[in-house]
Amino acid sequence: MRLSSQLISDLKTRNSWSIYWVMLFLWGSFVTFLHFGGYEFQWYAQFGWWDLMTHFVSGIGIAGILLVGLRDVVSAQVSLSWMFVALLSIGAGFEIYEYFFRAFWHSWTPAYYARDTAEDLLMACSGAVLIQYWYQTASMSYSESAVAVNGQSAE
Question: Are 117 and 95 spatial neighbours (Cβ–Cβ below 8 Å)?
C-alpha cells in the first residue's frame, strides 16, 4: 500500500520524483516487451542469454520501484542485503507463478527447472543490487556536494 500511495502522491503533486515514476513505467514497458517479444519472436529459444538478460533488467526495474516508492521508509544508505532479500522474495513469487501458469517447461526435468529458477533469481537479484549500489553512491555524492556547497561539516 505504501508504494501505491507514494506513486499517487508524487504524480498528483508533480514533484521532482514524478519523472522517476515515468522512467520506471517506461522501463517496465521495455521489460514487458523483452518478455513477451521473447515468446512471440522465439528469442528465448534463439538466444540462450535472453532469459538471463530479461531477469537482470527486471531486477533493475523492481529495485527502482522499491527505492523510489519506499524512499521515505528505507534510507538510501541501508545495507545492500535488504534489496537482495526483497528481490529474492519477489522473484520467488514470480517463479511460483511461472511454475503454475506456464507450459513451456513441461518437458524440463525437475533438476533443470531448479537450475533455471536459481539462475533467474540470481540475475534479478544482481540487477537489483547493482541499482541499489548506484543509488547509494549517487546519494552519497549528492550529500557530499550539498555539504561542500553549504560549507558545513558532515559531522
Answer: yes
State the DSSP string of 21-32. Answer: HHHHHHHHHHHH
Which whole-number Å values give the CA distances from 97 to 44, 100, 123, 125, in the listed order? 18, 5, 18, 18
**Number of residues that this document lists for the chain:** 155
Cα(135)–Cα(137) distance, integer angstroms = 5
Q: Name which of 56, 55, 74 is nearest 3 in CA terms.
A: 74
Burial 106-122 (b: 16+ CB within 10 A, else e): eeeeeeeeeebbeebbb
Short-list 44, 54, 127, 42, CA closest to 84 = 127
User: Quick one: cell of 80?
Assistant: 545492500
| pTM for the whole structure | 0.81
Q: What digits encode the pLDDT tens for the residues 33-89? A: 999 999 899 999 999 999 999 999 999 999 999 988 888 888 767 777 888 888 999
**In sequence order, what are the residues at sequence separation of 6 or more whose Cβ sits closer than 8 angstroms to the Cβ of residue 5?**
none
Q: How is 133-153 classified by DSSP, letter by letter?
A: HHHHHHHHHHHHHHHHHHT--
